[in-house]
């Protein structure tokens, strides 16, 4: 079970965007995710008239490693670790480690 999923609100705990919050837009693999407004880079692109693409400096998001983000806990207003709890019916749910509240569902 993934501890950080798409549409989770996360907070950056390391790197140049320390303390910023955003939503996970997509996962690349087990270790890297895209977060909206976080880890912005500038890409110098040449114009391509065949694709109707303008040239210039484009600012876009780069993937960030999941070790540098933590899921945001609205109860404590801080980043939190994620635990997995098995319910009586055998299904697994994600919980916040600090207070044991269920994250989703």
Strand order of the largest sheet: 6-3-2-1-7-8
First-residue to last-residue Cα separation: 14 Å
Structural class: mainly beta
CATH T-level topology of the domain at 9-79? SH3 type barrels
Q: Strand fraction band?
A: 35-45%
Fold topology:
Elements: E1 9-12, E2 21-27, E3 32-35, E4 40-45, E5 56-61, E6 64-65, E7 69-73, E8 78-80, E9 82-86, E10 92-96
Antiparallel strand pairs: 1-2, 1-7, 2-3, 3-6, 4-5, 7-8, 9-10
Describe this entry's structure for a reader.
- The protein contains no helices and ten strands.
- With 105 residues, the chain is mainly beta.
- It has a domain at 9-79: SH3 type barrels, CATH 2.30.30.30.
- The strands form three sheets. The chain has a six-stranded antiparallel beta sheet, with no helix packed on it. Strands 4-5 form a two-stranded antiparallel sheet. It has a two-stranded antiparallel ribbon with strand order 9-10.
- Strand 9 and strand 10 form a beta hairpin.
- The mean pLDDT is 94.
